[in-house]
Design brief:
- The longest helix is centred in the C-terminal third of the chain and has 24 residues.
- This protein is α+β, with helices and mostly antiparallel strands.
- A hairpin with a 3-residue loop joins strand 4 and strand 5.
- A 6-stranded antiparallel beta barrel has the order 1-2-3-6-5-4.
- It has 2 helices and 6 strands, in the order αββββββα.
- The termini are far apart.
Length: 132
């Protein structure tokens, strides 16, 4: 009998299908239904071709769909949608949460752009580390 898994909960294999890196980027996150313009804020973002992890002050619910805007170097604004997988409270600072989201509705071309930038961040980091 095949085991059923929730469509919103990726398997361990799916979560690690893409290389992850933590980098500081200008980012703006809001509910998909929120059409107000928002400012980009520099944040430490854990990102991969499959999803994003970032500290937020807004409480989102699992399965919420978020509009994510990133400012990628030499590319400009990169917009994507992410499904909230979970929100974990952080000890410090109070009132902040660790958002775990999975990118959805992303074309293969958009995913390739994101992966190329992630690999570039990794290359730049390694280059800085080993040339010091």
């Amino acid at each position: 009998m095949a085991s059923e898994t929730s469509a919103s909960q990726p398997s361990g294999k799916d979560r690690r299908e893409y290389y992850r890196i933590t980098v500081t980027l200008p980012v703006h996150i809001q509910l998909e239904t929120d059409t107000t313009a928002g400012e980009l804020t520099q944040k430490s973002v854990n990102i991969s071709g499959g999803g994003i992890g970032v500290a937020v002050a807004t409480v989102y619910q699992p399965d919420d769909i978020l509009a994510v805007t990133l400012l990628l170097p030499d590319h400009g604004l990169f917009k994507a949608f992410a499904e909230v997988l979970r929100l974990d409270p952080l000890q410090s600072p109070g009132g902040t949460y660790r958002l775990h989201g999975r990118f959805i509705r992303m074309s293969s071309q958009e995913r390739e752009v994101l992966i190329r930038h992630i690999l570039r961040f990794q290359r730049d980091h390694l280059q800085a580390h080993y040339s010091a």
